[in-house]
Amino acid sequence: MIKILMIYASMSGNTEIMADVIFDYIKGKNHEIVKKSFDFDPIQIDELLNYDGILIGTYTYDEGDLPYEVEDFYEELDDIELTGKMIGVFGSCDSFYDSFGGAIDTMAAKVKDRGGMLYDKGLKVDLEPDKKDIERLREFAEGFLGKIN
Questions:
Q1: pTM
Q2: Would you tell me how many other CB atoms lie within 10 Å of the CB of residue 34?
Q3: Tens digits of per-residue pLDDT, 109-120?
Q4: What is the DSSP annotation of 25-40?
């Protein structure tokens, strides 16, 4: 059984919908998955080492910025070595802005910088996930699990 940690931030609920789809898919495959919100759950940076895989969901704020609730976690990543950890990054973005999904790109770069094995390049969804996006999220979860096995 694979052990996954999913942590996410969602302002409008779109990234939370994405997290729920991925969570349900992984849970349905009988793997252990713990879901935490940057807003409501304590997240100790060293707990990332207790999992086979890590999923990080973040919306992109304004012109491509990380949301404020993710900033401390992002900085704390400098205190941990993620070599050998499979990590997937996903989130909701708004194509209205020039920097589409900048926070996802920023988090993906940090994960790679800390030695993590980044799954894909990060999954971006324009605003609220539609039916096609839901399928992409399930494929993302399936591919992520396949990289851990």
A1: 0.97
A2: 14
A3: 999 999 999 999
A4: HHHHTT-EEEEEETTT
